[in-house]
Amino acid sequence: MKQSFWLRLDLFARSLFPCLVTLGLVLLGSAPLRVPELSAIMPALSLIAVYHFTIHHPRLLPYWATFLIGILQDLISGIPPGVSVIVLLTVQAVIRARYRYFATAGFSLNWLNFLLLSAAAFMIGWLLTSIGFMRVLDPRPAVFQYLLTGAVYPVLAWLIMRVRKTFREENL
Amino acid sequence: MRKLGTPSTRVVAPVKAWAPRLGFAVMVGAALTLMVLDRYDSRFTERVRTTVMDGVTPLLDIISRPVDSAAEVMAAADELANLRSENEHLRTQNERLLRWQQVARRLGAENDALRDLTHLVPAPGLDFITARAVGDPGGAYVRSLLISAGSDHGVAEGQAAITGEGLAGRVLHVGRRSARVLLITDINSRVPVVAGDSRERAVLGGDNTKLPKLLYLDLEAKLHEGDVVLTSGHGGVLPPGIPVGVVTQVGEEAIRVTPFVDWSHTEYLRLVDYGLPAELREITNTAPGGEPR
Fold first, then answer.
1. Tens digits of per-residue pLDDT, B73-99?
2. By three-state DSSP, how is residue B127 classified?
């Protein structure tokens, strides 16, 4: 009995991994870099995390968790609350709709998929923020942010997998 | 792995297929509702926002410490490398400043004498609150900083946030232990200013670029590159006379200002409490131009 309790606790802790990592990345993305040019084009780390976890651990990142993560990001960053929520949920919904395709695709193909999907995500984000602020925003910083996010994707995705693997090996 | 085709899944399958879609629709609906709510009556989202800010600020404070240490080490290395030229630069600057000191002393004495003559009522005294900037949420659309001081420390909406060099922004949202400072470069920032020797009134409006624009400037106004821009104090929220920046581009379509603030050194901000009565502050904050949206 005792064994199963600890086992369950362990499993519970593991099941929190995607949510915690994504939350951590939201906070990390908000840390002051003291480099004003960089903070404007800071890569959207949470977008990468949501994309990655929805493909690799779809059950561990339910819609409501994404909702809370998105809200947190909006409230911290000061854009109209709801924008990141819709962006992240849309990405998640697209992956779930074509789950088999994404889950069987290799690393580089999924990178390409990410580039396509995040382009749409940034466009939605730009549109919604413009509506929220009631003015047409300059999309250029968002384009740079998009490019940087695409460049960071393989590194971050590899890191997340690495950490995940370490945890799994410890279990054996 | 998934097992498909067992009898139980065949029965439950349609329900299972629709449940996630429903979840998605509900969540997106909730997000849209929030967006609309925030637009037309921001009291609820404001409360949630400040609560979240209060909760997140201690975490950001921890995260930002190593970042600051690293930045300090880099700065120290940079200083060492440029010691000689820096020394030279400081020497000439010191000479220049000594001359300015003399000018300032003379003007101060003259000012006192003239004040005595005219029986001028002095401006309300200023109180300062120093706060650490713990968060730079960044993103492509917002220029703001999160600071680790809130209403518990005397921070209030509309206060000016300054660095040693000049105006950085003003307080937008206030939690109990945290606050958000909207920088003067943000697209929603509007600061009443005066520019040049002729003290032309204008509004400094950010557009998310490094160089904010002067808006609502008199058509007759003649401004030149190098003219200094100060806060005007109009609207009563910001104290008058805080240095803001220098006019650097005088073009057909816009006159742009380079802020004095060195954005890479905004670890600490000083908030200026102008000592306005709370009722007046409320009025000025809801006046057009006072509300940044």
1. 888 888 888 888 889 999 999 999 999
2. strand
Residue A123 falls in which region: left (phi positive, over 0), alpha (psi -120 to 50) or beta: alpha
- Return residues 232-261 of B near A (CB < 8 Å): none
Burial class (CB in 10 A: 0-12, 13-18, 19+), B282: middle
Cα–Cα separations (whole angstroms), residue B207 to B140, B187, B225: 11, 4, 20
- Count of the separate structural domains present in chain B: 2
Range of the domain at B36: 11-41
* pLDDT at position A172: 45
All residues of chain B having their beta carbon less than 8 Å from the beta carbon of residue A134 are: 293
Q: What is the pLDDT of residue B292?
A: 40
CA-wise closest residue to B273 among B149, B121, B184: B149
Helices B7-40, A107-133: axis angle to 10 degrees equals 30
Geometric angle at alpha carbon A163, from A157 and A168, rounded to 5°: 125
As a residue count, chain B comes to 293
Range of the domain at A114: 2-25+44-171
Same domain? B256 vs B153 = yes
**Nearest CB to A42 within list B32, B49, B138:** B138
Dist CA B218 CA B63 (whole Å): 46
Let me know if residue A36 belongs to a domain: no
The total domain count for chain A is 1
Could A40 and B23 be called an inter-chain contact, meaning their C-beta atoms sit closer than 8 Å?
Answer: no
Q: Are residues B27 and B132 in the same domain?
A: no
Helices A63-77 and B43-81 sit at what angle, rounded to 10 degrees?
60
| Beta carbons within 8 Å of A151's beta carbon, 6+ residues apart | A43
* Residue A32, in any domain of the structure: no
Query: ipTM of this model?
Result: 0.84
